[in-house]
Amino acid sequence: MRYTLAQAMRRLQQSTHAYGVTDLRDAINRAVETLAGMSGWECLRQVLRFSSAGPCFTLPQGAAGLVRACVNGRPTTIRGQDFRFVQSGPGDLSVVPPGYARVKPSNILDDGDSPVMVEPESPFRLFACSDGTDPAPAITVRGLSPDGRMQTVVLPVASAPLYSGSTLVSGQKPEDVAADPTVLQTLSKVTLSDSASEYVTLYAEDADSYDRFPIAVYNPLVAAPRFRRYSLAGIAPGQPLDLLVEARLDPLPLVRPDDQLPFDGIDPIEWIIRADWCMKSSEVDAAKKYTEQAVQWMKAKEVANDTIQTPIIVNSLFDGSMGEISGDAFNV
């Protein structure tokens, strides 16, 4: 059974006011983070289907990386960041030299982390808006200006518009927010304040055309946000891509009462909180037992979820599948 943050906090009310644990939401988030880092749990994987304009695409915040992927309906190999630099590898060519033929694109290349989901292609200015109507703390942005200087910009966060019928009572619409005058070419870091409590949307304004568009949405409890970016070699800019991917999750902190826990059950979270108590009181053996109990619960849950009757059959009709070679059996 999947629970919300509000349900978990009601169930774990007795897990507060001991060894410095005063914020139950923070304790739950730390327990979830601890459990997520113990193993590559299958429950912390998610299938995503979306469309993108090639050759690059970005996973949403909370997705740590790709496990498997299909591009335009066909399975594709995912390569790590070192693949670009393998001898005779793809490198970073955008134009094939004369006399050479382009290698068939069949690999998704890992481009590493970025502080934004959309990388502006030309110099830009920035502004930020909050999902809440109360004043939000400013965010700090670092990036390179067009002349190569590292710039640090502190962006005030505009509150979301609040309407009474059709009348704007407070806040600002994104099209009315003034952008910071600093012009940047690239972004390297975005830092949210520790006191942020609402989701923040970062916007870019093209320095020449003044076109405005969102480039990232940030969870307020992630102070140093990062997004995982990928690209496909041989895909023209703007070419549409249909992506079906399985991604590893890096669970985001739970913020709202209706946010759901990333896995079933509350028991392992309670045991991790109690293990933290034991560590703070120097009861290492007891902490180890609580942790092992939580891990065993997670493993048993995965075994139960993987128990199915239907066998796995490899369909040899699909190009690139493991059974494709069986189509040549008539030559044997």
Summarize, please:
The protein has helices spanning 5-11, 24-36, 267-280, 284-306; strands at residues 45-53, 56-58, 63-71, 74-79, 107-114, 124-130, 136-144, 150-158, 162-164, 167-170, 186-191, 200-206, 212-218, 227-232, 240-249. The protein is of the alpha+beta class.
What does this entry look like structurally?
It is a single chain. The chain is 17% helix and 31% strand. It is an alpha+beta fold. The chain folds into 3 domains: 5-41 and 263-306, no CATH class; 43-89 and 103-115 and 228-249, no CATH class; 124-225, no CATH class. The strands form 3 sheets. Strands 1-15-3-4-5-14-2 form a 7-stranded mixed β-sheet, with no helix packed on it. A 6-stranded mixed β-sheet has the order 11-7-8-6-12-13, with no helix packed on it. Helix 2 (24-36) crosses helix 3 (267-280) and helix 3 packs antiparallel against helix 4 (284-306). The termini are far apart.
Please render the helix and strand layout as text.
Layout: H1 5-11, H2 24-36, E1 45-53, E2 56-58, E3 63-71, E4 74-79, E5 107-114, E6 124-130, E7 136-144, E8 150-158, E9 162-164, E10 167-170, E11 186-191, E12 200-206, E13 212-218, E14 227-232, E15 240-249, H3 267-280, H4 284-306
Parallel strand pairs: 4-5, 6-8
Antiparallel strand pairs: 1-15, 2-14, 3-4, 3-15, 5-14, 6-12, 7-8, 7-11, 9-10, 12-13
Helix pairs in contact: 2-3, 3-4
